[in-house]
Amino acid sequence: MSITVKDLARMTGLSKGTVDRVLHNRGEVSRKSYEKVMKAVKESGYEPNIYASLLAKGSKGTIVVLMPRSISGEFWELGEPGFARGAEAAGNFGLEVRKLEYDQYDIEAFRAACDEALAMNPAGIILPPMFKNETFGFAGKLQEKGIPFIFIDSKIECGGYFAYYGMPAYQSGYLCASLLTDDQNVKAVGMVRILRDKHGQSDPTVNRREGFLDYLSEHFPDCKQATAFIDPSHPQGIDAALDAFFAENPDISHIAMFNSRIHLIAPWLEKHPQRRFRVVGFDNLSANVAALKRGTVTALITQHPDEQLASAINSFVNLLVFGREPEVRDNFMHMDILTRYNAD
Amino acid sequence: MSITVKDLARMTGLSKGTVDRVLHNRGEVSRKSYEKVMKAVKESGYEPNIYASLLAKGSKGTIVVLMPRSISGEFWELGEPGFARGAEAAGNFGLEVRKLEYDQYDIEAFRAACDEALAMNPAGIILPPMFKNETFGFAGKLQEKGIPFIFIDSKIECGGYFAYYGMPAYQSGYLCASLLTDDQNVKAVGMVRILRDKHGQSDPTVNRREGFLDYLSEHFPDCKQATAFIDPSHPQGIDAALDAFFAENPDISHIAMFNSRIHLIAPWLEKHPQRRFRVVGFDNLSANVAALKRGTVTALITQHPDEQLASAINSFVNLLVFGREPEVRDNFMHMDILTRYNAD
DNA sequence: AATATTTCCGTGCCCGTGCACGGAAATCAA
DNA sequence: TTGATTTCCGTGCACGGGCACGGAAATATT
Questions:
Q1: Is there a single domain that holds both residue A159 and residue A173?
Q2: Chain A partners within 8 Å of B340 (Cβ)
Q3: Which terminal residue of chain A has fewer beta carbons within 10 Å of its beta carbon, N or C?
Q4: A341 assigned to some structural domain
């Protein structure tokens, strides 16, 4: 049926061993033999039998996933099931998947994790570019070493990344505004943002806000916009901040947040049931879903970091085991809309 | 590292061949030897190496997918990509996946397809129970022969099905009503149904309507309900039917359909732009998505038959290749909400 | 020319499982 | 006891690829 190394050997008049050396670029082969084998490979359409290969070789290598520590109730926890699924699937094909976690606010921890990843001599690396400059430098090193890498969540413009799996951030902001207003005329919307001291907001958040604001100015140019800032590192201050904000803006009836922390404002909203808000946020953190089910949050837009991870791992399986390159580099995952009735 | 047949042989004092006979229930083994081997298997936690197995055996069998012919622009076409994904994944593990299509309105064709499927002596069968009674009988035969089968789309209550992958139909109807009304007070909603001559409506459609009506009566008990019937086999009559319906019910501003044919009423709606409707339907058929993007349809609820199929096939891979039984029999897929801004 | 060195290549075993074949041991028939 | 069956079991090859080892051929060195 299918063509084997032995067939190639027969076709070229060489031996199994020599063909094997050519196939793996292991040298010790004359130019003439090399070309003969390559020709035969092309003409015959030879494809190695992965089972035989896996049986003989054992492991195909290690994939390193470099991501922020998955803290209970925070965004990156959502990636966990995707990591598990991907690791299992990859394991079935002799690929080990290792996770390297770091503190997402500690740039030194990120650097250290990058070094550690390199030290493992991985067959591939998956990472969200949490720190732009550092990621840029790291990408350069990876390219030098010829290690393919995949961005998830967001990407930085640098050559040589193997693939990207993320969400169309701008578009999701646009969608957010559309859901929030539901095409009804809206007088004033409130946006709640996180006060960050050290590092700026993440890229996706910025792009979402852009999309959101564009939708508003396109559909409701007269709509008033106001922004509140809260500081999650001082939870007890949140209520006060919101008190002040909503007192100042009594006309606000619609609220959006562009990160995954919409649950932070749920307590305040539930303490003021007389003011009815329409509220849209992002990501199906369990606290968010709970607020959704209680009716405090109207809708959530989800980006499925788990699927991003699983797809990224799968993409490496295709490359490293089957030798298949992906057709498209930039993959945008579905945005799902969650309401209290399809939150499962 | 891991334990092999040779190890089992050494542990039991028997030979590789005998152990193999036990592992595959191939007989020709004394009771005593049989038990010795089984004990060793349990104690050692032996797991066969699938690569070696696949290499030696070639194919693991055939999975038959028994489904309505995927006609362009109709519901079952949506399953196609899932079939392709599943077949590829299964192929990677030496499982062949074959599709057997039939005319979904021809009960004889369904029977014939069932017979043909049986004749192929498949390792597993995947099917939506399009005809209740026939499926029931077919399920009986499959049980006799010990062939595992998986229901997709909907299920019938019969013992012995291996798994079910579908959508929570009732819940999706509930969601549909919630999206349609958007918690605004609604005076009158219109439902459009398909006129069926031979066979009744499909189960999911009925359940969706139930969920829909329950939501309405719970939230808007005074809301008027009216139903229009159209006949897709006479497309030219649809407009007239809708003309009559909407003339009779001038107060209707909200429309729902519970099957995947919402696109059938899009032309009428677009011919009467002066009447603004809120419209919710099901399934991302390309015609539906087009109507969504044009703004004629407000939202679509999607049930992803492709994911159902892919999951079902995957479930068989786990069973037939890895020997892993699924934890849950009844799997309900996500319902996604599509608006013009996340239709991609 | 004889030896040393490099370049190149073939042989053969291994991975773990599936299975055909043949034969030893046990049971039965005469 | 002998021969004919049946029951049970071990040996050995095949699957396709990876790779170590050793050796032949080609080239360099003296």
A1: no
A2: 178
A3: N
A4: no
Assess whether B51 (CB) lies less than 7 A from strand D.
no
Contact residues for A116 (Cβ-Cβ < 8 A; gap 6+) = A100
Question: Using 50, 70 and 90 to split pLDDT, how confident is the model at A235?
Answer: confident
CB–CB of A342 and B334 under 8 A?
yes
Query: Which nucleotide is the nearest neighbour of B4, by CA and C1'?
Result: C16
Structural domain contains residue B81: yes
- Give one DSSP letter per residue of B243-288, joined into a string: HHHHHH-TT--EEEESSS-GGGGHHHHHH-TTS--EEEEE---HHH
| pTM for this prediction | 0.87
Residue among B340, B326, B321, B313 at smallest CA distance from B81: B313
A340 within domain boundaries: no
pLDDT tens by residue, B9-21: 999 999 999 999 9
* DSSP symbol at A224: E
Per-residue pLDDT band for B274 (boundaries 50, 70, 90) equals: confident
A175 → closest Cβ in B182, B322, B339: B339
Smallest CA–CA separation between B175 and chain A, in Å?
Answer: 5
Q: Is there a single domain that holds both residue B175 and residue B278?
A: yes
Structure tokens at B121: 């002596």
- pLDDT for A172: 95
Residues of A with CB under 8 A from a CB of B: 49-52, 54-55, 92, 94, 171-172, 174-175, 178-179, 182, 301, 322, 332, 334-342, 344
Work out the minimum CA distance from A337 to partner chain B, whole angstroms. 6
- Nearest residue of chain B to residue A344 (CA atoms): B334
Taking only the tens place, the pLDDT of each residue in A292-331 is: 999 999 999 998 999 999 999 999 999 988 888 888 999 9
For A28 and C12, how far is CA from C1' in angstroms? 19
Which of A330, A335, A338, A340 to mutate: most B Cβ within 10 Å? A335
How do residues A4-41 score in pLDDT, each as one tens digit?
999 999 999 999 999 999 999 988 888 999 999 999 99
Range of the domain at A18: 5-48
Listed in sequence order, the residues at least 6 apart from A244 whose beta carbon sits closer than 8 Å to its beta carbon are none
Distance CA B338, CA B288 (A): 10
